[in-house]
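Reply to thread "Modeling small-molecule complexes from scratch"

Following up on the discussion above, here's a worked example others can learn from. I took a protein sequence and the SMILES for zinc ion and predicted the complex. Inputs first:
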Amino acid sequence: MVLEWEEHLLLLDAGMLFPTAEMPGVDFIVPDFEYLSERRDRVRGILLTHGHEDHIGALSYALAAAPSPVYGSRLTLGFARRRLQERGVRAELVTLRPGEPVEIGPFRVHPIRVAHSVVDSLALAIETPAGVVLASGDFKIDAQARAEQRTDVAALAEWGERGVLALLSDSTNVEQPGHTPGEDAVVPAFEEVLARTRGRVLVSCFATSVPRIQTLAALAAAAGRPVAFLGRRMIDNTETALDLGLLQLGGATRLEPARLGDAFASRALVFVSGSQGEPLSALSMVSLGEHRDVAAGPGDTVVLSARAIPGNERGVSRLISNLYRLGCDVVHPGTAKVHVSGHGSRDDLVELLQRTRPRYLIPMHGEYRMLAQHARLAAQAGLPADRVLVAEDGDVLSLSASGARREARITAGRVLLDRGASEVEDVVVRDRRHLSSEGIVVPIVVVDRQTGRLESPPEIVTRGIVDTAEAAELAEEAGRILAGAIDGRPVEERLDSELTRERVKDELRRFYRRRTQRRPMVIPVVMEV
Ligand SMILES: [Zn+2]
Ligand SMILES: [Zn+2]
C-alpha cells in the first residue's frame, strides 16, 4: 500500500506470498512494484509494521524499485537485515520506537505498540497534511498480556481524541466472534503434552512466533527439558531475537542440533520449522525419516502450533500422516488448544474502531470476503456505510478533510518468482498446469523438400497421457492418420511447412481428444530434407 501526498510517497509494508499447488514451479510471489519504480524519486520511505514474511518478504524488491530508507522496530529490522544481507541489498535502516515520532518528508509517523504473534509489532499513526492516517498493522488487543506486549489502547484512544481521518484495520479474523485470546491460552495444552510425553516434544510454529517460543521454552525449563532449534529460518530468527534481548529462554539449556542424537537429549523440546508442510522444511524431512540430526518415533510427540494457511491443508495433512507412520503422537490445533491467532477477532476490531473513532475505515489484510464482512461489522458498530471504503489491489482512494472518493484504478498486481528469483510469467504457469493435467504429444515429421511428401513414417512421442503399452498403440495409429493427412494434400499446401505444422497439430489434437478424452499439448517438429 502506498500513501501519497503531492510529490511524496510512503510505502506501507512490502510482503510476499507463498504460492498454492495450482502454481507449479512458482516459489514465491511479490507485488508488482512498477507504480513505485515509476515514481522512485518521490518515495520518501518504506514503513514496516512487523516482521512477518507477508509484510517484509518483498523488501528487497521494493528497494530495487525505489531505493529509500526503511523504518521498523528493532526485531522487524533485525529480520529484514538478514533478508537483505542474503540478497546482497543495502539500505538505510531506521529504528522505530513506540512513543518516538519520526519526520519523513511532509509526514510525521508515530509508532504505537500492538500485540501480535511476533513481538515488536507496531501500528502507525501517520500525520499527513490532509489528516491522520492510522494503520493498525496486524494486531489483536490482548488486554491480559504483559504491559510491554499488549496493544497500547491508551495511545490509540489519544488519536481518537485528536481526530483520525482514516483507519486502515486488519480484517484477517473478522469471522471469529469475541476477543482473540492471549498467548497464555496455549499453556495448559502444552503442559499436558510435556507431562505425558516420554521422549522428545517437537514443536512446529512460525519461525517468527517469538512470544510462543519464549512461553514454551519456559515450560521446557520448568519440566527439566533442554531446548533446540531446527531449520534455517528458525535458527536465524531466534538468534536475531536472542541477540536483541527480545527472546529469553527462561533458563532452558540450549542444545546444538547435532547433539540431538545424544542420550541426554532424549527428552528435548525441539522447535522445528515447517508447520505448513513445506516440502523441504526441517519437519518434512523429519516426517520422512530423512533429517540429519533428528529421527522421531514412538514416545515422541509432534505439536503443530500454527494454523494451516488456506491452500496448505493437504500438505499439512500428508505431513501429519507421515508422522503417525513413524509412530509419533501428533497434536494440532484441530485436537488441542496449541495455537492462538495473532489477529483480532470481531470484538477486537470493534474496540479499535471505537477507540480511534475514524472518519473513514479502510479494511485491510485478508481476502475480499473478510474486507466485506469487516465493512458490515463497522456498520453494525455505528459507522455509516458511506464511511467504509473497501478497496482491492489497484484501487486508488483520495481522502481529504472534506470527503473521500475513488480515483481511476492503477495497474497493480503480482509477480511470480522461482527459487532463482527470476520471474515466471503467467503464461508459463498456465502451460505447466496444462502439461501436468493433460500431458504432451511431440510428433516428429520428416518431409522431402522437393515433393512435400513424408520421407519416413511420422514418429510420435507422448508423455503423461496413457500407460506405455497403450501409448505405443495409439502413437502408431496416430502416425497412420498423419501420414494420410500429409501425403493426401495438394502439392502447393504440402510445400508450405507452416501449414504442415498446423495440420499435424489439428489432426493430433482431434485424435487424442477422441481417443483419450484428454487435450494434450501438441508440439510438432517438422523437418525438411
Ligand atoms: Zn499479515
Ligand atoms: Zn502478521
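What I'd highlight from this example: Residues 50, 52, 116, 138, 342 surround zinc ion (ligand 2) (CB under 6 Å). The longest helix spans residues 468-487. Questions welcome below.
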